[in-house]
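Narrative progress, year one. The postdoctoral researcher (J.K.) led the effort to move from monomer predictions toward full complexes, under supervision of the PI. The following entry was the first complex the group processed end to end, covering 377 residues in total.
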Amino acid sequence: MTSPQPFDKPIYITRPLLPELPEFVAKLEEIWKSGWLSNGGKMHQQLEAALQEQLKANHLSLFNNGTIALITACQALHLSGEVITTPFTFPATPHVLAWNDITPVFCDIDPVTMNLDAAKIESLITSKTTGILAVHVYGTPCDVAAIQDVADRYGLKVIYDAAHAFGVEIDGKGISGFGDASMFSFHATKLFHTAEGGALAVNEANLKHRIDFLKNFGIKNEEEVVMPGINGKMNEIQAALGLANLNYIEREREKRKLLVETYHACLDGMPGISFHKLSNNIRNSYQYFVIRIDEGRFGRSRDFVHEKLKEFNVFSRKYFYPLCSNYSCYRQLPSAQASNLPVATQVVKECLAMPLYGELSTQDVGRIAEMLKSCAR
Ligand code: T4K
């Protein structure tokens, strides 16, 4: 078999969606004329309203990034003590707890969805537990019904890190309809982005009210500051980019859908390679395409493939290796011990995020699949 030819330019896991430059420039001209750059300007108002509708959210507040949004959600819901979360996520998830002086309690994950295993939450609840911070990893929804059930029985708040779940719906209901608050990230690497940015979606008007104070230093008016807030505001330039990008988002989603279908067609049945398929009642974010490599059956480890693909100019990513529970700042926690996290410990060795963005062609995906095949032994 002849070895596949490397790409002549680097292929990353993602490239940011960018609007036609004149469309963005037109919005910048409006901003220039108005002389209004931040603090809830016109672009901010327009984007907040548009996203609330697009995400089918009851209430939505824009933020300067997803991490500050998540930190603010913990404040808004008065979380303290211990919060149960997943070790299989981006560092921001447990870090927002640490920044709120909350101890993350790591819970094992489901072997199929790779999200928090709802059946294992209860055994980790103590008198100090105030909430659950679950992540819709790669945009796959958590078992929202089971998580809500345990939360209701113990009076816990539920926050979803929906950083990867832009536009995800379950049976036509927006993903932020579940739990007390959901955070979306609008970082450049996300399907929808504002270069840096994020949002909190909540189901109660009072909570949005509190969040809007918290993200603006707690300022009520020129003379009253009603709570210790932070600066979480999205500025007008970020919001303008978001508004311009919104016009392209459905086209990008369709392109990615085709690429994911191509991956499926090329990789289905390849020994040792598997991937999670969402059921028909779930709307996909097409944020990531992630494979799992079973070293025994494929003949090579995930780490080998990750390195080998670089020789073809393909830069896959080991999201989310290592587990957060293995970071030096968390590994001393009792819940961080590998014996408590057997599924996560195995899953984290298998996952590899493959290139997925609208600029790729189906032929590119076909080539990447061939490169992957050539790694097998
Ligand atoms: N919770 C979860 C579960 C998250 O995944 C994240 C963020 C957050 C919370 C926090 O949300 P934010 O505060 O970020 O809004 C990237 C992103 O920076 C990060 O937002 C994202 N998750 C994470 C999964 O991915 P890195 O360190 O992997 O990014 P980087 O710089 O290696 O970029 C990945 C690839 O993307 C590059 O190889 C090339 C491409 N790229 C990247 C940038 C920044 C571009 O083509 N252009 C660009 O401008 O974290």
